[in-house]
Amino acid sequence: MDHRNDPTAKRRRPRLPLASNSPRTRSVVIATGLLVLGITPFAAARTGSNLREGLRNGTATRETQIIADVGSTNATTGGYSTRQSNLSSTGGGAIYGCRSGAGGSFAKPQPQNPCLRANNLSSGLAFEFNASNGDTAGTITVGKGGDTTKPFTTNATGVATGLNADEVDGLDASQVVAAARVKTGLDADTVDGKDSTDLQARFAQVATDGTAGATRGVPTGGVTTGTVGDGIYSVVFSGDLTKCAMNATITGTTPGEVTVTPTLAAGNTTVEVRTFNSAGTAADRGFHLTANC
């Protein structure tokens, strides 16, 4: 029967496929979902999300470990687990900050970690610093500085090769050596341009008649007696000893008194020594004279 000529027959429209059933539509929906899932960690910046370049990442509450097995190399790159480099001429390769305290109390110890630790578990170097073209490799500052702060501590007692200092306990090299030589009797030709006589304590042993006994730092003929009166002697030391302390003592068993007066002339120090008896009257007496510098 021909339905086209049947007036009672209902006109039926052909059914169209659903949009969700279209292959192209399904691809768009899936891609959109993946894009949302991929963007979500970056937008949220939560702890545990992907590392975001140029932005502050989330605050981690667990240790982040980067474990590598990379052999050393002689090339300009390679051989390290990570490498941080800043191509800017203003520097800034890396910075590590923390808020480590001074430690807990004895009753309740609290472990404190340094902001940076390089721990070599084998026998090689633990760190290396290199300034390729600069005059100073770096600085170490501690609080406001001063004598109560220390740049670092070490349990190594060996000599650090190339490490030098201008002063030790406020004394320069020549003063330290001079003090050591006086105590130990050591000798050398020159130290800081000074011979052994310059570095050792000066002294003179003078008899009652003005005869010089053992001396150090006194040139030949440096001990003379005065012609004006009794008890006047002159002792000449090489160099300027005006900042030194002069000490004189009467020799022998008879009590007596002595005074010293140093003056600088022609680069040498002349010490006038006057001796007296126990009553304070000028008298010729033997004495010992030392210069403590």
Overall description:
With 293 residues, the protein is α+β, with helices and mostly antiparallel strands. Among the domains are: 36 residues, no CATH class; 92 residues, no CATH class. It has 3 helices and 10 strands, in the order ααββαββββββββ. The strands form 3 sheets. It has a 4-stranded antiparallel sheet, with no helix packed on it. Strands 5-6-9-8 form a 4-stranded antiparallel sheet, with no helix packed on it. Strands 1-2 form a two-stranded antiparallel ribbon. β8 and β9 form a beta hairpin. It is elongated and about 100 Å long. About 10% of the residues have low confidence.
SSE class: alpha+beta
Q: What is the approximate shape?
A: elongated
CA distance, first residue to last residue: 140 Å
Low-confidence stretches are 27-44, 184-193
- Helix tally equals 3
**Share of helix among residues?**
10-25%
Biggest sheet statistics = 4 strands, antiparallel
- Average pLDDT taken over every residue: 79
User: How are strands sequenced across the largest beta sheet?
Assistant: 4-3-10-7
Compressed to H and E, one letter per element, the order equals: HHEEHEEEEEEEE
Number-wise, the strands total 10
Q: Measured on Cα atoms, how large is the radius of gyration? A: 45 Å
What percentage of the residues does DSSP assign to strands (E)?
15-25%
